[in-house]
Amino acid sequence: MASSILMAKIANDPDFQKRVEYYMTRKALAVAAQTDPLPDPNDEALIQKILRSNESVRLWSVAACTNATIAAGTHAGDGSTIADGDLEYQVYQQWTAFKV
Fold first, then answer.
1. Confidence band (pLDDT; 50, 70, 90) for 79?
2. Alpha-carbon distance 68 to 26, whole Å?
3. Which of 15, 46, 71, 99 is the most buried (most CB within 10 A)?
4. Are the C-beta atoms of 1 and 72 separated by less than 8 Å?
5. Do 49 and 55 form a contact (C-beta atoms < 8 A)?
6. CB distance 46 to 99 below 8 Å
7. Under a CB-based contact definition with an 8 Å cutoff, are residues 60 and 98 in contact?
8. For the segment 18-43, what is each residue's pLDDT rounded down to a tens digit?
9. Number of structural domains, the chain?
């Protein structure tokens, strides 16, 4: 498993943050389009924060880097070898924590 220092560096990498932001936006749009069940007020608030760029991409990036699967995918030391599917899954899993 990668060290916490390496994971913090990856979380602060602009390219990694762009990837996280992409999945944040994708999740926000998916939740906004839900009809059954409809998004709750906390979902709506987070959707608006993400789509208006008022949500901390850095914080979501740090949170993603705490996942063991993400840490295991850091072969290049810059986050470029973290599989898109793994990153997407992790960002989607973080939704409930950040919507509170």
1. confident
2. 23
3. 46
4. yes
5. yes
6. yes
7. yes
8. 999 999 999 999 999 999 999 999 99
9. 1
